[in-house]
Amino acid sequence: MSTADSNAELGDAALPTAVVSLKVIEALANAPQGLGVTQLSNLLGMPKARAHRHLSALREHGYVTQDASSNHYRVGWQLYLLGRACVSRFDLMTLAKPALQRLRDEVGQTIVISSYADDSVIVIDFLRGTSPIEITLRPGSRFPHNTSAQGKVVLAFGPADVREGFLSTPLPQSTARSIVDAPALRAELDRVRARGWSDAPEELFTGINALAAPLLQADGSLFGTLAIVGSIHYLPETPDPQHVDSLLRTSQEISQLLGFQRAT
Predict the structure, then answer these.
(1) pLDDT tens, 125-142?
(2) pTM exceeds 0.85
(3) 3.20.20.70, 3.40.640.10, 3.30.450.40, 3.90.1720.10: CATH of 88-257
(4) Is 50 in a helix, a strand, or coil?
(5) Strand order in the sheet with 208-216
């Protein structure tokens, strides 16, 4: 079907609402920088009011997100979780299971893979640890960027609009150690970017720490994060260098599975 035919079809108000919503999602999925309402309506050949209604409904249920500064819409975390459930042939936890198990066996702690939204990281799945104190996380759980090791990775290595949008809002506080000052968080992100990993000792939950590193896609963009999560007793404020080395090695291995190739 030609673009003109597709646009004419979508301009037909009789087209089922579910099909139009899927076309909206498809258009956003093919636009990494997001689309405004006018751009989307022109692309799909539908009235702006109709495009806005679909976007509002999808945003309300987490299937799309809206950037606060540009007002552009992008696919959201709920859509990723739905896609993960549907596309069993490309289940990252299955694909990366040998690497994740090696990391878990080396460090003994819970291993977590997360995706992200504009204001938080979202747990995709986890591998249980083997230490006497076990940390478990529910898939779909969300944590603020500034209070989690994974969120700091997102702000340091993810899209600039996500970082600037988040830093332009009041920073939430989870514990007394949470970083709630924007300049201090920017300085922390510089350190994360320089060393390639982050931590968050007792910044999200008292007694809990995490070490996190980025998972990169073929084009170098951020897919999500890999993290080691455990009691501060097993993941102290000064990290074990072997834990950091294991984390970075595994994140690089999984990034290669996603198609990323390090520059030589």
Answers:
(1) 899 999 888 888 888 889
(2) no
(3) 3.30.450.40
(4) helix
(5) 142-144, 120-127, 110-116, 222-231, 208-216, 198-199
